[in-house]
Specification:
Blueprint: E1 9-11, E2 17-21, H1 24-27, H2 40-46, H3 63-76, E3 81-85, H4 88-91, H5 101-116, E4 120-126, H6 132-136, H7 145-160, E5 166-171, H8 173-181, H9 193-215, E6 223-228, E7 233-235, H10 240-263, H11 268-273, H12 287-291, E8 297-301, E9 306-310, H13 313-318, E10 335-336, E11 343-345, H14 361-374, E12 380-385, H15 402-420, E13 425-431, E14 450-452, E15 459-461, H16 463-474, E16 476-478
Parallel strand pairs: 2-3, 2-13, 3-4, 4-5, 5-6, 6-8, 7-9, 8-12, 12-13
Antiparallel strand pairs: 1-16, 9-11, 10-11, 14-15
Helix pairs in contact: 3-5, 7-9, 8-9, 9-10, 14-15
The chain binds beta-D-fucopyranose.
């Protein structure tokens, strides 16, 4: 008798948007082409010991020169939507001042090329590549940078706002603020908690100002949003200290952005518990009202939950190493939570992805339900979710990435469970369309549904891409 596999089909709501995502610095390459000047990531890659293997984004996937071919592949793979980011230093090379027509033209062609193929663009204005010319002036620690960002948003709004239905201001300001200015593992490589908090505020201010500028330029039917990587925080134990640490991390990682953006205030407890780090004097009168400019949708990125413990004397004594990206939990021990001395991130049990991130799909359901509970008025879109695995191009010319299919399948089931539980989730973007420059990890980590051979730059859809195509056309996932 043949054994029958029980399958279970989870259908998504009608109109659910499916897509895949990338970011400019991670795929474009062409770092010096057509008038582009360096970003903070070009500069950071030049520093010793910042990126695995000394990799840089100089060539990356060379998407800048292969854009039409990549768009054709998206169409072949049945992608209804594509999330990309604009490189600020390609469009305004000095960060402020003259617009580089050739740089802007690339994004005109990208958007037109998507629309010609029936693919809906979702544009991110800032995916971490600040023009280096602005960093020289202090970067995001400088209160002038939000004003420069609003000018840049205006340029993009005028050029593309008529045909991009959703514009996201910032991608993961938490990473830009805290990995860039507290742990220093991301550009610009600063390590100072007070600066990180100031930068977080300036990023939020930049977001609010860009929203206001864009609102006046885009069609009434267009949507404005921000993408946050919210921490799904789990306490290491039920002790009052660990529970308090989890509450603190929820404030310093999540509510530090959610509350000003969606409620027009910082949590008082966050201000109080970080007074020994900063007096928050960088919050000027009127800032919170500007940050609170209404948005239409919230982008949520999720990869893995976080487990946190109180910063006990024992933990402080135990930790010697620096914080390494999102700590490779398969190997690393506890590490201070970025931006604070009051909580530690502690390892979690496997299984893990190739990043060493634990695979816990239920945490995704919990996160989406919690955001919906606390901010019920804002629709959600999953703007990133996916996994790195050690993919191999086999002799049959294929990449049999069953582990990625399993990860995505289970995370889609988790999204589905959140929707069933009442969360208003409108779409899902797989990170990433193709393998790319994974920041401090360089090319050593592959997140793509399309495999990239970094010698020939040839693209090969992985099994997950073919599987995802079926999910999209069924608007359902089979368990
Ligand atoms: C997110 C970033 C994205 C990519 C994934 C793996 O934090 O937004 O660029 O690096 O992680």
């Amino acid at each position: 008798m043949t054994e029958q596999r029980m399958t279970h089909r989870l259908s998504f709501p009608q109109g659910f948007v499916w897509g895949s995502a990338t970011a400019a610095y991670q795929i474009e390459g062409a770092a010096r082409a057509d008038g582009r000047l360096p970003s903070i990531w070009d500069a950071f890659c030049e520093l010793p010991d910042t990126i695995s293997n000394g990799d840089t984004g100089e060539v990356a996937c060379d998407h800048y020169h292969r854009m039409a071919e990549d768009l054709d592949l998206m169409a072949t793979l049945g992608l209804p939507s594509y999330r990309f980011s604009v490189s600020w230093p390609r469009v305004i090379p000095d960060g402020s001042g003259p617009v580089n027509a050739a740089g802007l033209d690339f994004y005109q062609r990208l958007v037109d090329g998507l629309l010609e193929r029936g693919i809906t663009p979702l544009l991110t204005l800032y995916h971490w590549d600040l023009p280096q010319a602005l960093q020289v002036e202090g970067g995001w620690a400088n209160r002038d940078t939000p004003a420069r960002f609003a000018d840049y948003a205006e340029v993009i709004g005028r050029a593309l706002g008529d045909r991009v239905p959703t514009i996201t201001t910032l991608n993961e300001p938490w990473c830009a603020a805290f990995l860039g200015h507290s742990t220093g593992v991301h550009a610009p490589g600063v390590s100072d908690n007070a600066t990180a908090l100031r930068v977080a505020h300036h990023l939020s201010l930049a977001h609010g100002r860009a929203v206001s500028v864009l609102r006046g330029l885009i069609p009434a039917s267009s949507r404005l949003s921000v993408t946050l990587n919210l921490a799904q925080v789990r306490p290491a134990s039920g002790s009052p200290e660990d529970l308090a640490a989890a509450g603190h991390v929820d404030r310093i990682a999540n509510r530090i952005f959610l509350d000003p953006m969606l409620r027009g205030r910082y949590p008082q407890q966050l201000l109080d518990e970080t007074r020994h780090l900063t007096d928050w004097a960088f919050v000027a009168d009127g800032d919170l009202a500007e940050i609170n400019a209404p948005i239409d949708v919230l982008g949520v990125n999720f990869y893995a939950p976080s487990k946190v413990a109180a910063a006990t004397a024992e933990l402080r004594a135990e930790v010697t190493g620096r914080w390494v990206n999102d700590p490779n939990q398969a190997e690393a021990g506890p590490s201070p939570w970025p931006g604070t001395d009051l909580a530690f991130s502690v390892p979690q049990p496997g299984p893990y992805t190739a990043m060493g991130w634990p695979i816990v799909p239920e945490a995704f359901t919990d996160l989406l339900l919690a955001v919906h509970r606390d901010y019920p008025e804002i629709p959600l879109v999953v703007t990133e979710n996916g996994a790195a695995f050690d993919d191999v191009l086999t002799a049959d010319g294929r990449v049999h990435d069953a582990d990625r299919i399993d990860y995505v399948r289970r995370h889609l089931a988790a999204v589905h469970a959140a929707i069933e539980g009442g969360a208003d989730v409108r779409g899902y973007y797989l990170w990433s369309f193709m393998d790319n420059f994974e920041w401090a990890w360089g090319y050593s980590k592959r997140f793509g549904m399309v495999y990239v051979d970094y010698d020939s730059l040839a693209r090969t859809p992985k099994d997950s891409a073919l599987w995802f195509r079926d999910v999209i056309s069924d608007n359902a996932v089979q368990l």
